[in-house]
Inverse folding.
């Protein structure tokens, strides 16, 4: 007899939404997490972080928030997760680390640090951001410079006085750039491919327009060049009222440079293609505005006139190199993205590059599912608001699969 | 007759063949490894002549349909014979041609009919670099500007999108904007 029907690994928004789905179908299950509920929200976020999207967009099923247009701090979201977990009454085993997942003919064995559990199905809900991605050229950064990973960064005072090179203009990159520049560090921001969005457009939060125009609900088969979309960094937003686009950062005195292309003889070399990337980001932003304008017109909604932000202002004399060996730069922040970690799986489920193979979250091994990855099933899959929809789809698949395998 | 019935647009780019090649090379990454070549012979003074004929790719040696000759020289202002363009102008020409080819290809792929595409490229250089007057001045261009004038059955945003996508996939744009490694040997 298996320990339970389904084991969910990870007690964050995805794992708990799946737990709720399974409970509603009376499927016996256990949720396990190496830490507490919402562990990465507790331990891998910086002190001043607020959610990127307004509270109304981050409500788990059945939950509410007194300030729908505010922006929660991560610890507030953890409280929401705890209430949500209580409401589902799930068997959640925290402080239990999964070491390995194996499978025989019929059952998965989940090897934990305190024993082995068995189940007919396993749901991976450990998230898309298990470890930071650091480019290979990091090995050429001079030793005396400290290298900072965003999931370990807490507050500006942990960063040495002096110059900082932030690599990557993702949501994380631009927010840490702003915070460090305001704290008196001289920040150089290396900008590769990026996504520019304003906090508000025509009086409403940008999340409103992404929602009503249906953009966030696009399914993966409706998205042109999915592979490229999956690689896009998070949009240049921060929770609250502040703007963190490149123009706003330049106004604070940040030096905006091109993509970090190489580190050679202690000198960081930047791409001269910044104008192109910024123009491409502006172009895509305007396409979203066009979509919003059309929606407003078609639906006869009254809204303030279009208030489109100005185009990126290219520095007059773009900086193409920066010495890392003359003491001016003291720290490098790698805001170059995150990757999931499925190394616990001792199963034939990886492609040649070592990526987990799945079709909309359904893995090739029957009974194995994954949640919370970018564009897993829809554009919002890795947003908090995507957890419930994906869990509903995959919970239904999981239930049918359990029935089919029980009958076989 | 166009090859694909559903396409109403013809910019003379066989996008179907390119897309087929793309999927074929995705499956056979070793065939995607290319080596491009040019040979260059000194003629006299600062006049030289390059010939371009062979390249390697798709797993074997390949050839153009003919050998192409390109003369490079410097103008009389440099006390030279002006038998050809300067090498830096060849670089500008290479950038313009690469981006223009990209515009045509992307337009075909996006079903946009082009009527005319004209690119103007300028590169600014301070001769204090190559003449060794000031070691803080670089030898190469300190700024390059490309302007496209495109007539097409498309909106201004769609045309801007063509130009953006062509930069994104341009080899010469990448070669110029990103650092690369060059190894010069003597035989």
């Amino acid at each position: 007899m298996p320990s339970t029907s389904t084991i969910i690994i990870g007690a964050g928004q995805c794992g708990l939404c799946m737990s709720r789905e399974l409970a509603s179908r009376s499927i016996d299950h256990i949720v396990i997490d190496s830490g507490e509920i919402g562990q990465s929200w507790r331990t891998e976020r910086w002190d001043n972080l607020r959610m990127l999207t307004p509270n109304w967009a981050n409500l788990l099923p059945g939950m509410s928030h007194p300030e729908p247009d505010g922006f929660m701090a991560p610890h507030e979201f953890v409280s929401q997760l705890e209430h949500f977990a209580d409401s589902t009454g799930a068997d959640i085993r925290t402080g239990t680390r999964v070491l390995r997942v194996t499978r025989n003919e019929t059952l998965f064995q989940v090897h934990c640090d305190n024993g082995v559990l068995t189940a007919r199905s396993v749901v991976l809900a450990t998230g898309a951001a298990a470890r930071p991605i650091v480019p290979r050229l990091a090995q050429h950064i001079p030793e005396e410079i400290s290298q900072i990973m965003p999931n370990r960064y807490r507050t500006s005072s942990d960063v040495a006085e002096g110059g900082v090179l932030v690599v990557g203009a993702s949501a994380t990159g631009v927010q840490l750039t702003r915070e460090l520049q305001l704290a008196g560090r001289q920040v150089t921001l290396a900008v590769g491919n990026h996504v520019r969005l304003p906090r508000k457009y025509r009086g409403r939060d940008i999340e409103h327009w992404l929602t009503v125009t249906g953009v966030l609900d696009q399914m993966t088969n409706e998205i042109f060049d999915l592979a490229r979309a999956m690689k896009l960094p998070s949009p240049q937003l921060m929770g609250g009222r502040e703007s963190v686009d490149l123009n706003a950062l330049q106004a604070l005195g940040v030096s905006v440079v091109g993509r970090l292309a190489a580190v050679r003889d202690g000198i960081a070399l930047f791409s001269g293609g910044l104008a192109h990337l910024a123009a491409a980001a502006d172009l895509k932003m305007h396409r979203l505005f066009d979509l919003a304008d059309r929606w407003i017109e078609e639906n006869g909604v009254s809204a303030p006139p279009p208030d489109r932000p100005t185009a990126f202002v290219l520095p007059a004399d773009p900086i193409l190199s920066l010495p890392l060996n003359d003491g001016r730069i003291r720290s490098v922040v790698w805001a170059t993205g995150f990757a999931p970690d499925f190394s616990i799986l001792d199963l034939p489920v990886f492609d040649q590059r070592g990526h987990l193979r799945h079709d909309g979250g359904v893995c090739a091994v029957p009974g194995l599912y994954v949640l919370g990855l970018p564009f897993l099933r829809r554009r919002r899959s890795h947003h908090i608001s995507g957890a419930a929809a994906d869990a509903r789809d995959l919970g239904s698949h999981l239930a049918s699969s359990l029935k089919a395998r029980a009958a076989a | 007759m166009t090859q694909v019935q559903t396409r109403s647009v013809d910019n003379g780019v066989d996008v179907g063949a390119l897309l087929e090649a793309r999927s074929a090379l995705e499956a056979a990454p070793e065939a995607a490894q290319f080596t491009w070549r040019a040979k260059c012979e000194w003629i006299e003074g600062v006049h030289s002549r390059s010939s371009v004929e062979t390249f390697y790719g798709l797993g074997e040696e390949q050839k153009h349909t003919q050998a192409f000759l390109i003369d490079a020289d410097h103008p009389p202002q440099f006390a030279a014979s002006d038998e050809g363009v300067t090498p830096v102008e060849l670089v500008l020409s290479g950038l313009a041609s690469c981006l223009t080819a990209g515009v045509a290809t992307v337009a075909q792929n996006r079903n946009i009919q082009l009527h005319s595409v004209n690119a103007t490229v300028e590169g600014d250089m301070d001769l204090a670099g190559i003449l060794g007057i000031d070691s803080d001045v670089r030898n190469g261009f300190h700024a390059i500007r490309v302007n496209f004038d495109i007539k097409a059955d498309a909106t201004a945003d769609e045309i801007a999108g063509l130009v953006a996508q062509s930069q994104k996939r341009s080899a010469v744009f990448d070669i110029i904007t990103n650092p690369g490694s060059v190894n010069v040997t003597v035989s």
Observations:
- Chain B has a mean pLDDT of 92.
- The interface with chain A takes residues 144, 157, 160-161, 164, 167-168, 173-174, 176-179 of chain B (CB under 8 Å).
